[in-house]
Amino acid sequence: MTRKIAAIITAITGDRIIIGEEELQHAIEEHFSMLPVDILLELIERVLKDPTKIYEQKKLNQYHIFYRLDNEKYLVVIVKKTTTGNYFATMYSTGKSIRNAHKDLKEVKS
């Protein structure tokens, strides 16, 4: 099975993040149904290139969690890091605060 790529964005970490069409469609359908695809891609790029905070989660898989504060609300982009590449998992808003589950993670950038 071949992954269809919608975009590749280089994050502030230097990692090239692969934005898959399926994951992008999920973010649109579940979290940003009011936005066109091109605008959502611009938002993803903004969060990845100029985040307010980045957290690292290492459990079964490794994730980087990029937060950006805009208009007093946080947007979060979740990136799965694997040996084959770095992949966009999802994006959503957390409102006026960072999720409590993320606050205890190792902070990569603040």
Secondary structure: elements and pairs:
Blueprint: E1 5-10, E2 16-20, H1 21-31, H2 37-49, E3 53-58, E4 62-70, E5 73-82, E6 85-95, H3 100-103, E7 106-109
Parallel strand pairs: 2-6
Antiparallel strand pairs: 1-2, 3-4, 3-7, 4-5, 5-6
Could you walk me through the main structural features you see in this protein, from its secondary elements to its overall organization?
- This protein is of the alpha+beta class and 110 residues long.
- Helix content is 25%, strand content 46%.
- The chain has three helices and seven strands.
- The protein has a seven-stranded mixed beta sheet with strand order 1-2-6-5-4-3-7.
Can you describe this structure in just a few lines?
Helix content is 25%, strand content 46%.
Mean pLDDT: 93
Widest sheet, order of strands: 1-2-6-5-4-3-7
Task: Please tally the β strands and state the result.
Answer: 7
Low-confidence regions = none
Subunit organisation of the chains: single chain
Major sheet description? 7 strands, mixed
- What percent of residues adopt helix (DSSP H or I)? 25-40%
Distance between the termini: 38 Å
Q: Order of SSEs, N→C? A: EEHHEEEEHE
SS field, number of helical segments: 3
Strand percentage lies at: over 45%
Shape: globular
Helix-strand category: alpha+beta
Q: What is the alpha-carbon Rg in Å?
A: 13 Å
Output the keywords:
110 residues; alpha+beta; 3 helices
